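Dissemination and training. As part of the outreach component of the grant, students in the summer workshop were shown how a complex can be specified as a set of sequence lines and then modelled as a single object. The example used during the hands-on session is reproduced here so that future cohorts can follow it. Participants entered these lines:
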Amino acid sequence: MVEPRFRRDGAWVGASVPRREDPRLLAGRGRFVDDIALPGMLHAQFVRSTEAHAELLAVDLDEVHAVPGVVAAYTAADLDLADITALLDRPAHEFVPTAMPVLARDKVRYVGEPVAVVVAKDPYAAEDGVEAAVVEYAPLEPVVSDLGALAEGAPLVHAEAPRNTLVDVSLFATEGIDDVFAEAHTVVEVRTKTGRQNALPLETRGVVADWDDRDEQLRVQTCSQVPHQVRTVLARCVGLDEKQVRVTVPDMGGGFGQKCVVGREEIAAAAAALRLRRPVKWIEDRRDALTAAFLAREQRYVVRAAFSADGEILGLDADVVCDMGAYSCYPFTAGIEPLMASAEMPGVYRVPAYRVRGRAVTTNKAPTAPYRGVSRPQYVMVVERVFEKAARALGIDAVELRRRNLITVFPYTGVNDITYDPGSYLESLDLCEKTLREEGWFSRRSDENRVIGIGFACFSERTGYGSGAFAQRKMQVVPGFDISEIRMDLNGTVSVTTGTLSHGQSHETTMAQIVADRLGVPYDRVKIVQGDTDRITYGWGSFASRSITIGGSAVAAASVKLGDQLKEIAAHLLSGDPEAAVLEDGGVRVGSSWLPFAEIADVAYLKAHLLPKGVGPGLAATASFDVGGDGTFSNATHGCVVELDPGTGGVEILRYVCVEDCGVAIHPQVVEGQARGGIAQGIAGALFEEVRYDEAGQPLAPSFMEYKVPTAMEIPDVRIEHLETPCAFTENGAKGAGEGGTIGAPAAVLNAVNDALRHTGVELDDTPVRREAVFRALEVTR
Amino acid sequence: MKPAAFEYHRARSVSGAVGLLTELGDEAKIVAGGQSLVAMMNFRLARPEHLVDITHIDGLAGIRREGDTLRIGALTTHRAVEKADLGDFAVLSRAMRWVGHLPIRTRGTVGGSIAHADATAEWCLLAVLLEARILVEGPSGRREISAEEFFLGPFTTALEPDELIVELVFPRPAPRAALTEYADRKGDFALVAAAVDLDTDRIVLGGVGPVPAVVRGESYTGTTVRARAAAAADSLELRDEPGISAHYRRGLVRTLVERAYEEAARG
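and obtained this result:
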């Protein structure tokens, strides 16, 4: 257990208490989707397109039905399901929707696209069945890159999307910005292309579905970050109403955004279960997870920045193109990446003039979804490269140049119409630099015999997107709020619902800590109910670092309401003043008297005749929470030290320091875990992982031999320092902590690599950094 | 990623295994550690109808020193070699850290690696470098094949379908030899691997052709390590390939040969 850093005397919030999840998970007694076995359960696998772009002439499943063990096989025509379509409320020149069929009809648009589903008595027979399918294609020319998509005369992935453009939005264009650039002392430009990545949860996607005659319900156990959205889409696709679908989520081994959109396979497997009236399980294998699951992050930036002679940033002019693959994801649409980049790019700096165009193009590659950080790892990297380049051009130290431009007076309303709540932008930079200096890295950097570089990244991250913030994106489905229902039962135990959903973030512990403080009970008296559409009022699940900021606020508010009920009843029973009642030690104190919750619950349920007039039986309350303004901004500075090997082009990270500020940390150890895991994924993007395709659109990384996920051998130990700027408008003072690690790492690593290359004249701005490029840059000086 | 159906056979002796291979014909495959074959079966890239499991054969695992000769049984795991104290054959133990990750080294076998014949595999390089002989048994008895004649192409060897590798025989100590590699991630198959033996002036390279490539160093005797490394690199015919140019690969050869020489000299 790490020492609690923020713990107030006696409080649960701020203490790194033992995780409630650990006993079962560490003993292998968790229950994940693949652990579920129902009587008579069948197994689904998918016939997937082998073509990147083709007309689908015929899907012949006759041979499939003859394979021993195969029970059923269905094409799109057999299942006749409604399409999955995500919408933005934007005009046609800004947004073109795509209808994503559950199984491909008429046309296939990427290798791996599901064409038919095979259901068999075991997963082996299901794969035998898949092999027996005969699919006839008429190949079309594939679109395999963003530039290819935008080229004159390019083939169209969707006939309705000219120039293969799904989103084309110019959110900001400060008047007179061209003059700003024309008159500026220095203008720098960064051109960057970032590699396509897979969010790669350790647990691949999967589902178990069965029809329950007694409840007249399709029961779906799926590993999703958004069970209510799965319910809504599934009900619509198969033609049931919402009450006829129950989606529950067991333990999950990560999601990182890949599971915060609705997947085609979970719908198809559930539809098969409905038709067969037998349980059907689908577990995505790793090959499919690497080639056919939702991907992310392939973006191209051309960004110019204008600076005055003394290093003041005067303007930012950005063109962003995101390669979103074959379809828009539900509910976010293909706008998720370009709109995030466009809205937030000025970030932590006082940028007076800003112009941006953000586009999403469609290509014949697996579709994309949000992935931890969503565009912020990319635009932060680009903006941080801007500062490094400007520092060189101006002859000013890069850290000093950042200091001159960071937002220091809060609240600050930026050129991007966002109001930033207080953070520790300058303090985190100062502490990060000081830490690396005191550890001696700057003197090691000067060693002539070694090739060492130091890089920094400053950023803030909007967390707790409320309905208002998402509405600005013009999503037709607007997430934001959360609703919590709390109940005290006999013995004074508490159960509380949250519309958020832990898929590895420890909410059973952290939400319980919040309730424990509000009610004055130990956290192990609190049970968290999550991930069940029958038991929880419509929720938005967990993504965008929203769980503690929004879900935790709703849980806190519901706890306060329940506490008020307890106080009222106790005051009546003790003949005291409810205003003088306080919650204390698992009971209510009124003056010198104290009544334990168990006795209050006893009255509320078993002796209701003793309740005060006007107070009904039971102990329950509901509260909701939404963020009214622009959300709350976590911030951090990352510092990275790399050493390059001139003989091989190898890149080794020698040191990594993260100074983070997520307001009040509910559980510091969990926050540190989030930072470490996020940094590992950010390093992966900067140095290792890339989903590549050949010219025919065939994926080149179908296994972990080709998709180079870094291991513990490549990821350094990370020193984490905490600053705390509490949020004024979330219930617990907390800001989101889920994504920051991923956001800062690519910039810090890339800046460090370029700092190490400072004597070569070579700058590398694309990720992942190619070792051959490093080798060639250093070769001349060897 | 579930394999196609196959029949499982468990061999209890080498002759029993050979008997099964003879009886079952071309569609039979030996399985030992399964670190390459099973993955290929899961991808359905390999679909043998029969698997002959040799892991229950007594006496196939183990390391024996006989005078100057070192004999390593086919079922010996990489990990067992890594942990063994091999004296003037210590290059073998040291090289094992390059073989995959610990779980792979714990299950994968020396014989399996040789039979799989990946051109960058450490055992293939070491066998060629140290002029090992591969002892195999077939229906007509045992024979020895020299390592250089054993590897015919990528994943292709001189082993007949009804033969089983019994032992790897290293004929003489190599106190001044080393193997080193480069890959972006530790544990990956090498982009380039280089092994050298100062006593024979032999250089063997992986990742530069279909089989481990031998560069005989006699002609460079007396020149500097750097010059030898450059000469070895320049002697190769390399092509640009997706993601890696000939120029970069040649550069890696130069670096790694140099580093292998340095490590070998340290002993």
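The two ends of chain A are 47 Å apart (CA to CA). Students were then asked to discuss how this feature might be tested experimentally.
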